[in-house]
Amino acid sequence: MHRITVTEASQVAEARRRAVAIAQTIGFDETAAGRVALVVTELATNVVKYGVPGEVLVGIYEDGTGSGVEILVLDKGNGFPDLGLALRDGHSTGGSAGEGLGAVRRLSDAFDIVSRPGLGTVVLARLSNPRPATSDGVPLYGAVMVPLKGEVANGDAYAVRERADGWTAIVVDGLGHGPDAAKASEEALRVFRRHRDDPPATILAAVHAGLSHTRGAAVSVARYGRDRATLALAGIGNVAGAVVSGTAIKRTVSLAGTAGHAARRIQEFQYPMQAQDLFVLCSDGIATGWSIDAFPGLAAAHPALVAGVIFRDFARARDDATVLVVREGVT
Question: What's the confidence (pLDDT) of residue 238?
Fold first, then answer.
């Protein structure tokens, strides 16, 4: 994802430029790109007025609901004292041309927001072209994946693949950062795609063998089985997972080692997971003690919004950072 710091008005234009450029690379026409420009401008302007310091993350999403441009706006400002009023279409406390968050919600194909006085605001907006039809029974997921500041290549990678009985997910954290770390992660995803129908431990063993010519990586592979209401996970290294059920967080186990170089054993661990639960998988760029307790009810929000909150509050400045959040789709 592209990351744009927003502290003053000139950076709003930079966020808009990058978002429109991304939209155009995936085939958005002038009208659809204009929607993207309006949404980014409205959200980034709100940060300048009420949420400094903040940042805009812009990338491409693709899941069972469709594909398009994803915008996450993160700030630690004062928050909205009355979120319901702020979301009313046409309400704009700052008199902006876009007429506020209500207009952003109306223009977006997926929209979610969390805000608390004193804790700031995180907003998710997804725009597709053409707009997708509702898709039920597919995994709904979102991710924040941001390279270390100053790096272009991202040493992290992730993938989610739908199955008839659930889904399979992987997060890879290439050793270190920069181009060599990215090569290790890209190779891990290539192996994952070839073996994605195998059990998680078998996939991980194949990734371990396939990374022997790279600098190596931390890797976790998870499989959700709908009929058994179970999550199976196999991991090597410090890609940390958790099942979030309401306010309870069950951390998963990943064994010590480096995929591609040192792994004493590869083992799957089983965890109960219901359809409404969240599964969170983080690279080492996210502090292991993350929590979403500061925002009651956040576990029911869109997975991409949850990922944005965890990234905002728990990202480490010294590494690439990835947060993947997956929930079973609506049935």
Answer: 94
